[in-house]
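Researcher: We're reviewing a set of sequences before deciding which ones to prioritize for further study. For each one, I'd like a predicted 3D structure that I can look through quickly. This is RNA 2',3'-cyclic phosphodiesterase. If possible, include the structure in token form so it fits the rest of the review sheet.
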Amino acid sequence: MSNITQINNQRLFLGFSINKTQSSIFCDIQQKLSGYINTEATQVNQTNFHITLGFLGQVGQSFIPLLIDRITKMQKYQFELCLSELQFWQKPSIICISGLAHANLSIMAQAVQDIAQQLALHQSQYPYQPHVTLFRKATNLTLATNINSLNNRLPINICPIDLHLYSSVNTAYGVHYQIIHSWTL
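Model: Here's the predicted structure for RNA 2',3'-cyclic phosphodiesterase, in token form for your review sheet.
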């Protein structure tokens, strides 16, 4: 891929933001877990906490208006999500807190996959599982009985009010997720 093509492409995904109160709970959980994971793991910055609805991959600048139009036409539902399970996902090397997708959330996730297929964008090979990533580049999680220290923090109930189209931007200070368009649920 040429440098010009890379400059014109953006790494995009759809997701729901986390409010400040919930974000501070996720930060507290990160702190409690930091002694139980590999030292190479990196904490997700508090400003980047979100629940992904669908990863779209590298999207050319000329496709973004069409993508926004398709998402605007997509049915959007309000939902409540209960995040209750701490998990280590070996394949993407993340530690996250996950939950089960409510029917309305599953419908929206499938609609995003359909849009991605229609526009020849990235499509997930895994079933949709909503989660908030706490650590990246994780190679292990050893909690044993110390998970009890998290019981007063879980579950976390989230009721998003907006869907966002995010661009993942690499900066000198790390990755930053920038909202480029929003829709009210």
